[in-house]
Write a structure and sequence with these properties.
The structure is a homotrimer. The first copy, chain A, folds into two domains: 86 residues, Udp-n-acetylmuramoylalanyl-d-glutamate--2,6- Diaminopimelate Ligase, Chain: A, domain 1; 213 residues, UDP N-Acetylglucosamine Acyltransferase, domain 1 (3 Solenoid), CATH 2.160.10.10. Chain A is built from four helices and 40 strands. By secondary structure, chain A is α/β, with parallel strands linked by helices. In chain A, the strands form seven sheets. In chain A, strands 8-11-14-17-20-25-28-31-34-37-39-40 form a twelve-stranded mixed beta sheet, covered by helices on one side. A ten-stranded parallel beta sheet of chain A has the order 9-12-15-18-21-26-29-32-35-38, with no helix packed on it. A seven-stranded parallel beta sheet of chain A has the order 10-13-16-19-24-27-30, with no helix packed on it. At the A-B interface, strand 22, strand 23, helix 3 and helix 4 of A face helix 2 and helix 4 of B.
């Protein structure tokens, strides 16, 4: 794969500063790039790597000062570079059909142009859409549906009664539709509440590796269109994750909580059950959410409070020992003043 | 499946307010229920949904005021409803035996009425009890034992030397008996301590998806009867989880710690190693336990302190910046008073 | 397997107090040991178990007072005992070759003395070194390399373009090389950044169960020689884990962060992205690291500060309500003093 810089600039809709006839054969990070490769600058933290890079050209915004190399100027360098990466990424393998060693129930429905690897298992009544890929070790339970173009990596478990939309990506080892964690305790015995709901995952969702999305107790657990969920995240029964939300690694959302649209939960956040988190809420890493959160605001802390307040609290925390000492000092001085008055 | 309300009330041991001849065909949450369905109210948070539900009847305690629909009055609505759900849940598939494509070592012992799916693998010397189900991708190591009626979901790994009791449920992707995390460091090299203990999981335990229960270094890691463990929980080597304990998602218990009976660890709790946590202890979400905890008490915080104290600490935290300002103010006022005295 | 105490003391390079002709047939923890077994004492917390143990001999340092049983005196009892355990551990099974039901691409390269179990899957262009074991359900992607003597437990997923060194151990369910979590958002759509880097895992690394190590966006995610990573840990794209580092269960390291050599992250720690953590840094359990950390220091807290400071802060936290009360009291007393002056 080769492109001239002129061709690349046109493809990315950017304007070119430099020699349009230079040939690009690959993409790389600033510090790893070789001559003939394209790189990018998006995070100012890496500006200092600009002067040492061996890249032939970079993608950058108009304001970045660049010397000794060509630049494709764009508004969103991260996005434009992503498009360039896709251009140079290795071509996908053509569909392989249902391969020998795959086990697909005769009464499952399978679309065209699929790849079902050996060791994948599709239960009775399941529906596998066109152009779906099921890697080895994938389990698709009874009556579950996987929409067109979805990509299910090795050893993913999709239990019965799960509906997955189009162009969904689920990474290795993730479990969709395990029983929710519900018990009614009487006389020292935890009686299991049957979990008879399902899971609905809408189009264009991506879920990382070794995550878990439990089935509903009654009714569905829902991940709405375009949401992105990272590795080792826990989504409990009957949670609703709103459209376009982003949930970073090792975060967890407890049962029946509803996240609005475009919510961001940073890494290792926990949200207790039965809450409502408004549209556009952002929650800082490691925070613990224990009450409903208003739309459009940023929150942090355990328990989570408005992010600005949390920053102020965090600034005081390391000074607590000094604060206590000061209060002790003030007390002594006041004791003395009062005594002198007597 | 159909039941009259009279039949249902009798089955649940409740008393009926309303028309006993009404026919129930299913169960649902208040907000999703349709005519002909039974619902329930247990959490007061959902009382407001009572007036809009389309359910034909609900299960509730005697004190809940209900208008326009039948009520089955019981003492524990959550438990009674669970029993009704089980009644309407789809029938289990009859046992399928050792299916073609399952790999069971000729010197493993397999009981009657089992279902061993294609892609399951049972090593030499393992014992699979009557009525056990092993889904695709389950691995059972050498000499491991799975008791009668246990249900092992897809891609669960059970290493060698693991003993699992009766009616145990293990959800997809969970790993039982991986080596504990133990090294002796000398000269900059972390030498692995062989982990030659096993895991003992007693009857009626349920373990969620993608959890891990490590094998003991010497002696066993133990999960006692009736305990319930949620998704993505980590139980380290030689931990003992007491009878009837509940460990919520993403919590972790470090090596050799012993939890008493009926301990509850909420989500994302961490407990350090070599501790004793007393019977009936409850630890709040996200807490960090770093010392032994007395039986029967509730704890929260990092580090965990009595829950009541933690609530008071939490109330002050957001006011820390103001507290610091007040101390600064007091200091100035005192400086002034002292100066005036001179 | 039987050894006399004399033989054992020689093997461990220790000096023997007691009868060298006594026969040892196994190893066990102090509280479980039976006559004929060897035990050890390393953590002073277990000194009280010394007087009740039934062990025939123990491994201990010179300063431990022992009565009524033989002692092998060594400098590092934990390490010496580990060597004794290895001596008595069950022998490994001889190599089984590529077993029936394993699926190895004809254009993969496979060394000698391997064991590839049924249900393992090796893609085109992969290289499996001598004496490697791949358990059932292991997936090895296109062109990935696994070095000599490595041990890959059931249901591990190794995606394409991953290079794994020699004597590496990866426990069940772990996923190496899933796509990093990277999106460029424009117009409410999260566009996926293709993740075209790989993963490099050097020699003698061990990774626990259900962990995840993502592939780089560009360039590699790297785990350097001799590092040990526990269960359910998340290593994000382009992270570098330095040589000999230890990362305890459920910790997470965000994208592009570099850990130095011999860093220790305790359980449930989180580290944000694009940071540098110096050589030998130790981070306490549940801490949140949000800035670069200097080499050789210990840190704790959310956010992480020097560990000693954090201990002082932790001592004050439970006293916050009292501190606030004291400040209120001081204010009143000062109000009174000032009023009297008027």
């Amino acid at each position: 794969m080769e492109k001239t810089l002129k061709e690349l600039a046109e493809y990315l809709g950017g304007s070119l500063d430099g020699d349009g006839s230079a040939v690009i054969r690959g993409v790389a990070a600033l510090k790893d790039a070789q001559p003939g490769e394209l790189s990018f600058i998006s995070n100012p933290k890496y500006l200092k790597e600009l002067k040492n890079t061996r890249a032939t050209a970079i993608v950058a915004t108009a304001d970045v000062v660049v010397e000794g190399m060509a630049v494709i100027r764009v508004n969103n360098p991260y996005l434009s570079f992503a498009r360039a990466v896709a251009l140079f990424a290795p071509a996908k393998r053509p569909p392989q059909g249902i391969m020998e060693g795959a086990r697909v129930s005769p009464d499952a429905r399978v679309g065209k142009d699929v790849t079902v690897y050996p060791g994948a298992f599709v239960e009775s009544g399941a529906e596998i859409g066109d152009s779906v890929t099921l890697y080895p070790g994938v389990y698709v339970g009874e009556g579950s549906v996987i929409g067109e173009g979805s990509l299910i990596y090795p050893n993913v478990v999709i239990r019965e009664g799960v509906r997955i939309g189009k162009r969904v990506i689920i990474h290795g080892g993730t479990v969709i539709g395990a029983d929710g964690f519900g018990y009614a305790t009487e006389g020292g015995v935890h009686h299991k509440i049957p979990q008879i709901g399902g899971v609905l995952i809408e189009d264009d969702v991506e879920i990382g590796a070794n995550a878990t999305v439990d089935r509903g107790a009654l009714g569905d657990t829902v991940i709405r269109r375009g949401s992105k969920i990272d590795n080792l995240v826990m989504i409990a029964h009957n949670v609703v994750v709103g459209e376009g939300s982003i949930i970073v690694a090792q975060a967890g959302v407890s049962g029946s909580t509803e996240l609005g649209k475009y919510v961001v939960l940073a890494g290792q956040v926990g949200v207790v059950g039965h809450l409502k988190v408004g549209d556009g809420v952002q929650v800082g890493a490691k925070s613990g959410v224990s009450r409903d959160l208003d739309a459009g605001q940023a929150y942090s802390g355990i328990p989570a409070i408005p992010h600005k307040n949390w920053l102020r609290v965090q600034a005081v925390l390391p000074k607590l020992p000094e604060l206590r000492r000061m209060v002790g000092e003030l007390t002594k001085r006041l004791d003395k003043l009062e005594k002198e008055k007597e």
